[in-house]
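FAQ

Q: What does a record look like?
A: Structure on top, sequence underneath. For example:
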């Protein structure tokens, strides 16, 4: 099973070798389908999403490390719909217009940092995107990349990437192994999962609970999470809706940060490759 940064290249070579953009692999009883082109991915995952919208159920990910709250991995159903409705209502373009001043503040900070140390542009971009997301979602002002919220979110992304690699953990192929006690020989994955779960739970719960506590005290800063909590209606299952809000808010950083960084670094590369266009933009 290909792993690491070379895996996309290996899959691409296999697609050419077998003359197919759809590959099927079986690893220790786990069936894996690899889509090797945007055309095929769009056809199956977009146009035929009602047929192919099911999500893989990883024991290590969902049962042992706490990613069962990652609503982007929910199967289609009422629970997924409820999360999606909250997401669209408060994370859509119109809803985010309210937070445009915070975005501009992040941009100005980024420009200052780039002027001071342009060679460190990637860390600067990561800090700007992370601090802007945290500010909008939780109302907290982030001063450095060592901020607890950012570190928890980044660690959670790394954990997800590790677990998400097919074939990484035997328990996903032999689910009964999840019942082994953590002290049992060969159950190191259980001990690792226990440590990872603490990080994942903290990444979702800590910022949410701090907003909730500040709201009770009356000194909370404007944020999406605060708006969602204030919008809870009488008669709703408060505990259930708070979990939905926590899940939706907690997914903002992992889903947005890398996308924003990739977009910005691609823009920088384009400006370096085409300085004439850069001059036109500056004018």
């Amino acid at each position: 099973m290909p792993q690491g940064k070379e895996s996309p290249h290996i899959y691409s070579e296999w697609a050419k070798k077998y003359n197919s953009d759809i590959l099927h692999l079986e690893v220790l009883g786990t069936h894996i389908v690899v889509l090797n082109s945007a055309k095929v991915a769009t056809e199956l995952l977009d146009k035929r999403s009602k047929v192919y919208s099911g999500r893989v159920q990883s024991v290590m990910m969902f049962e042992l490390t706490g990613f069962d709250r990652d609503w982007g991995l929910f199967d289609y159903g009422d629970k997924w719909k409820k999360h999606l409705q909250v997401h669209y209502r408060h994370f859509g373009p119109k809803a985010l217009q309210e937070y445009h001043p915070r975005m501009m503040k992040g941009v100005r900070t980024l420009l200052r940092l780039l002027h001071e140390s342009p060679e460190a542009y990637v860390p600067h971009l990561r800090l700007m995107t992370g601090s802007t997301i945290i500010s909008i979602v939780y109302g907290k002002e982030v001063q450095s990349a060592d901020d607890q919220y950012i570190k928890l979110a980044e660690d959670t992304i790394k954990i997800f990437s590790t677990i998400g690699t097919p074939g990484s953990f035997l328990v996903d192929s032999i689910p009964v192994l999840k019942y082994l006690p953590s002290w049992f020989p060969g159950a190191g994955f259980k001990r690792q999962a226990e440590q990872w779960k603490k990080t994942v739970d903290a990444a979702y719960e800590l910022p949410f609970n701090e907003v909730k506590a500040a709201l009770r005290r009356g000194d909370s800063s404007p944020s999406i999470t605060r708006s969602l909590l204030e919008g809870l209606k009488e008669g709703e299952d408060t505990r259930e809706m708070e979990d939905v809000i926590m899940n939706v808010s907690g997914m903002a950083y992992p889903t947005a940060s890398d996308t924003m960084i990739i977009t910005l670094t691609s823009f920088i590369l384009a400006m370096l490759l085409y300085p004439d266009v850069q001059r036109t933009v500056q004018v």
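Q: Is there anything notable about this one?
A: Residues 114 and 120 are 7 Å apart (CA to CA).
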